[in-house]
Write a structure and sequence with these properties.
- The chain is mainly α.
- The chain has a single domain (about 10-315), classed as Up-down Bundle (Rhopdopsin 7-helix transmembrane proteins).
- The chain has helices spanning about 25-50, 60-85, 95-130, 135, 140-150, 155-165, 180-185, 195-230, 235-260, 270-295, 300-315, and strands at about 10-15, 90-95, 175.
- Strands 2-1-3 form a 3-stranded mixed β-sheet.
- The longest helix has about 35 residues, at about 195-230.
- It starts with 10 loop residues before the first strand and ends with a helix.
- It holds the Pfam family 7tm_4.
- Its main location: membrane.
Length: about 325
Amino acid sequence: MQGTNYTRVSEFVIVGFPSLQPEYFVLVAWFFFFLYVTTAVGNLLLVVMFTLERSLHEPMYIVMVSLALSDIGFATVALPKLIARYWWNDGSLGFHTCFFQMHMIHYFGSLNSLILLTMALDRYLAICFPLRYPTMMTNQTMAGLTLFCWGIAHIFPGISTISFTLMPFCGPNKIIHAFCDTMSLKSLVCVDTSRQYSLAFASAMFILYVPLAFIIFSYICIVISVLRMAKGQGRMKTFSTCATQGCIISIYYIPRFFVYVTPFIPNLTMTPDKRIATTIFYSLFPPVINPFIYCLRTKEIKQIFRRWLQKRKGLARC
């Protein structure tokens, strides 16, 4: 039968930046190690703070903790192998391990989009329906929505992963990227993948930009509602809370938009190094910066930090 003579690839090799000179490998490894530690520690601090402080047991903070856990998960899936590639020149990944990484990379991307949708829904209900909000969005409701997001986010990446797992890989196994993903594996398949890639691309657009459409709609409604408030009704506090989440949403969506539209702009090409750098920026910058945005922009968290510091000073004097 035609198509049965392919040599099955047993492992893939993460190349990373193809133009990077070997003398910079250790420096790049340290950079990614620093990113990973900062992401893990910063987001884990938020999780611990939420666990210990009962005053943070509110719907808004439940969704923030969900985002923090998702960011830790993404960094843990994406960075250790990239660090090993530059620290010990170990970029090899088993066949199924690579597909697992691909699935989890796209899973956490989908999950973050759904979490940001939930975050926007929470703010929309809180500001546009303030009297009904306490009964509409309880801790149990938000916990249920969060669990639903963590479950349903597997669907679209799972379809794409299963589809690509069944494709034949007939020799080339070098992945010109920082991790396994649909785009990098597509170029290694021996047969036409236009149908599978179109399905994966359509799924990605749906899971990213349908939530974005609602997010934009909700924030338009929020701005209109806030502008109708009298100044003494907490207008600045509302704007501050929305600005915090607006920063997170902008960091997540805007770089992705430019990456996705680049192939459709005439005379504009992106080298592999630029594509990898851009992908790393929009994938890893938000998980690093999110905890700092929360700490700098959220009044309740700043007050908790001050209280913790005062307790430590009091213990030190004793």
